Amino acid sequence: MRHLTARNTIVPGLFRALALLPLLWAAPAAALPDLGGREIVVVAENAYPPLQFIEPGASEPIGWEYDAVNEIAKRLNATITYETASWDAMIPAIAEGQYDMGMDGITIRDDRARMVDFSAPYMRSEMFMLVRASEDRFDDEESFMASPDLLVGAQPGTTPFYVAVYDLLDGNEANPRIRLFETFGASLQALISGDVDVVLTDGTAGEGYVETNPDRFKVVGDALGAEDFGFIFPKASDLVAPVNEAIAEMKADGTLDALNRKWFFEYKAAE
Question: How far is Cα of residue 269 from the mean position of the Cα atoms in its chain?
């Protein structure tokens, strides 16, 4: 066996030290923009649980989007003022500059992007069919369509509405098989009471409903489409870039995943 010289014994330690140099020399993560306490007026409908809603008997809205926007404001050194508007009025009001930012589980779409600017996506939405746990008349899109008496509940102008019209039904927005409700919560209650037979919901939310209420709900069939949610701003808003930087940081450090766990699983389990 060859004996190690002093040089031989030093080199492995040197290699270990050199391996650490990229970590020591790596540039620190770029600091987020500092908005200097700027006030940002954010509008929400407060009727799309668990993204934003008001609990029965409560006065203050809560939800995934509230936590996310509050965290964005904290990271950007901004102050948030919240306002309320109906879903139908929200996008036109943002387009007119009545508010600085809107949140309502808003799907990023080209037609809307002609009116407002979108943030980077903060959540991917896949629509699934949420039905009563006892449902045995259909178990997918085809068997639902084969029974003309079966009804779908939806809130007009929302992603579940458009997916129901164009992916589940025949493309006719006046199809009598769609029952319209002012809020998602109302359509969910109609499902429970048997007034409609299916409600389309985001896959993550659907998992949460089923996990915490397995005796009441189940999800059937395959995903009917995938879309991304984004916050909205007036055209050419200087808030888009800093908000996007904050979203990217929150994705990278696990904050958005933690919010998913909190609002889609842990919160429902506590109900």
Answer: 19
In angstroms, the CA 138 to CA 197 distance is: 10
- pLDDT confidence bin for 185, thresholds 50/70/90: confident
What would you measure as the largest C-alpha separation in the chain, in angstroms?
Answer: 89
3-state secondary structure of 223: coil
> Can you tell me the distance from the alpha carbon of 94 to that of 41, in angstroms, rounded to the nearest whole number?
10
Token pair belonging to 19: 């391996």
Q: Is 22 exposed, middle or buried (0-12, 13-18, 19+ CB in 10 A)?
A: exposed
SS3 content of the chain, % helix, strand, coil (to 5): 40, 20, 40
Q: What is the mean pLDDT of residues 97-121?
A: 96
Beta strands per DSSP E along 7-158: 38-44, 47-48, 52-53, 78-84, 101-103, 117-118, 123-132, 152-154
Q: Structure pTM?
A: 0.69
Asked if residues 117 and 234 have their Cβ atoms less than 8 Å apart, the reply is yes
